[in-house]
Amino acid sequence: xxxxxxxxxxxxxxxxxxxxxxxxxxxxxxxxxxxxxxxxxxxxxxxxxxxxxxxxxxxxxxxxxxxxxxxxxxxxxxxxxxxxxxxxxxxxxxxxxxxxxxxxxxxxxxxxxxxxxxxxxxxxxxxxxxxxxxxxxxxxxxxxxxxxxxxxxxxxxxxxxxxxxxxxxxxxxxxx
Length: 176
What we know:
Elements: H1 3-22, H2 26-40, H3 44-48, H4 54-65, H5 71-82, H6 89-104, E1 106-113, H7 119-133, E2 136-143, E3 151-155, E4 158-161, H8 164-175
Parallel strand pairs: 1-2
Antiparallel strand pairs: 1-3, 3-4
């Protein structure tokens, strides 16, 4: 993925968000983007293939999404297909989710840990991160056994690595 693709995906996400917000459908469209991504995942190869006619791609997407998403989302996906930008759809959906969370005053934290975190631990971590960030925090927990122990947290551009693996890496770097 090129940086120009990121810029383009950001523009599409912002335009969709603005259109949905004007209709007060921003939360609905966010949910529908997830549904659409899930429904079209099995058809990804066909929708991305350059030799499949655009009309066939639109018909395929329309058939898969019929009754599952609203007109705003369906028209947006049709536009992506028409403009030959469907490959940006996953990135657009992620950027749209970020815009929607920003509007709600929520930021997303990705927490990597060696073992699953209990609900109480997640709640405590979210409360501490809220104090740090000054906003409500939505936590996404990912298990990564390579961390050995501890956690690594990433919020936007900020990262904290208090994992055992990270500590060992920092020790090795300081010795060299």
